[in-house]
Amino acid sequence: TDDLFALLYILKQDRSQFDVKAITISANAWIDAGHGVDQLYDILYMMGRDDIAVGVGGDGGISEAGEIHPDVGGYLPLIDQGMSTVGGCRYRQAIPPGRRGGRLDTDTNGGLRRGFLPQGPRGYAPLRQPTGQQVMVDTVSAGPTTLLLFGTHTNAALLLMAHPHLRRNVERVYVLGGGVRVTGNLFTAYGANPFAEFNVFGDPFAAYQVLHSGVPVTLVPLDATNTIPVTEEYFAEFGRRWQTTPEARYCFQSLDQVLRRHRRPAPGLHGSTGYYMWDSFAAGVAFSSMRNGDANGANDFAELEYMNITVITSNKPYGVHDGSNPFFDGRATPKFGLKVGGVHSGHVQTGIRDSFCLVPGSNAGRCQDGYTKEVTGSEGVRVHVATSAKPNTVYNSAFDREFSKNFLEVLNLAKQAGRFNISTQFPYYREVLYKPDFINVSRGKPVIFDMDMSPGDFVSLIYLLKAPREVIDVKGVLVNGNGWANIASIDIVYDILHMMGRDDIPVGLGNTTAMGNPTLGCNNVYAIPLGSGGFIDSDTLYGLARLLPRSPRRYTPESTDDPEHRQPLAFEVWQSVRRQLCPGDKITLLTSGPLTNLANISLSDRDASSVIERIYVVGGLIKDGGHEKGNVFTVPSNRYAEFNMFLDPLAAKTVLESNLNITLIPLPAQRKAASFESVLEALEQTQQTPESKFVRQLFALLKELQSKEKLYHHVDIFLGEVL
Known about the structure:
This is Inosine/uridine-preferring nucleoside hydrolase domain-containing protein. The protein is of the alpha/beta class. The protein folds into 2 domains: 13-231 and 273-313 and 348-403, Ribonucleoside hydrolase-like (Inosine-uridine Nucleoside N-ribohydrolase, Chain A); 443-721, Inosine-uridine Nucleoside N-ribohydrolase, Chain A (Alpha-Beta Complex), CATH 3.90.245. The strands form 4 sheets. A 6-stranded mixed sheet has the order 3-4-5-10-8-9. A 6-stranded parallel sheet has the order 13-12-11-14-15-16, with helices on both faces. Strands 1-2 form a two-stranded parallel ribbon. α6 packs across α8.
């Protein structure tokens, strides 16, 4: 959320002094690429800045020999980057993927994004979206450029490593991140690493490369941002007087929804809310430094001093080979020509529960990966470091820091103000729920559809909703967050239901990890590509989600002020549907994704089998003596697994070994139905409806992508799911 505050503050600066040319997205940090890029396009549209280039992702790779190919997407930290976008979450697992302040809340901006931002003409499109590296190279090649790094450093490190000649065009890098003389902020991983800060921890080796690149660096670490909290009094003042522009209102409402989730009890108005002006303060420090001259000029908002800094990328003893460090392990020559026994050759933290990092009997671990450490001698680099926020010179003001007031003043400037929000863009638009009238209508079999939000799942949902209601009565939809789309794609489900006039159907939010796995991690789901043909496409429905009508219903986070008004969970929707059953009725479940939700239902509701008539499961591979192979194409060592089973094997085992009546639609049967040509031909011959046109457009796009680019060779598996 604070990235958005910083972005809007930046866009309000005088363009004659500071000209924003491009924005790239850190695809391995707090936001998922597909959701992030469309949100960014809409903010730029609101601010009248469709001229700004936006880059995200890319499908290039880094060879075993260390050759950096064009358009590496930055989905993975450099230490784990291979030749594809498939990989684990060594560092990113420290960021919660779901609700309660995790990526789900960031992807949706706490449910506010779709209720406020207008929708512009730009949006993600497969194979046409500019990549992060393409945008950075083009921008820096054009002339002297200043970089503001307010996320992980992967994109910038790739630029400087692959194009060393462009370093002379980078005048200075301003970095928000690190903690020099204070403890880190990895609240999910403090027990393993108490030193690191999220932005640097997301890719420590990349941060090291940026810091040691020879380009001048100004660092705004936790040391400084810890001194500029958002107080209760500041928040109240913001709400009372400082919302005269769309961007100011968006910032206030965004801050409000964050504090509703996270506000900590605090005595008096001056109590801290637990929220700090991280990115926005760093933006203020950067622009003040640029105005006044960074090297020697005074900064209006921060105290700065020079320090000798490095970034820790591995842990002592150096020169070990314990399987944690792909730069050295199993190699005769270290990757990127790194020094044998050097600072990068020690144990590299493998996750937030790395046993090497844990100290028995202590709450604080010993790993230092991502620590911006103050050192002496040639090991470090001279860096200009912000140490604290300057106090307000006006006594007894609601703004106790100089930047606090400046931030609100800039947001509320009439100059370069946002043009409109969604309600002023479409003044006749009303948020109306459409629910069918079932009076005197015979209702068919009660059905719950369980999906992981792949493209085929959305087509299946439309198909179910088109069935006669006296035959099939869709009672609920459950979504998995450990399948082909990130959990924030639940908003697309709401839009489909809205388009079909079925705003009466509840949608339940499922787990984000496989059964039996920690809530932080990416076991099994690592097999789904993060780039083309994977998450970035599923999260945008291959760029077509923006064509759907915008539902008044959307993901809504938990709030301490209104605990009842929130997104229901999958098990809660199950319980609600069960309570509403008529005597003698039983539920039919259709599942087209990992079986996590069904397994949780069967384990949490011991009497579930008494009201389940049958479960239809799309998934699995039944070998009949032929040469059938599985479809987990990203894991060549596993020739027989099918994705839905592979993504949560324990859940599949739990469901299949239960006493439930199950009909399995395995991979061989799906493949017989996976023909784009025949389906598209049939769609052309039928009467056109909005939903049939949408499905035809989706399948035609998938067919075209499959024929053009090998990264999409697998997309016909989504067509097979509809069976």
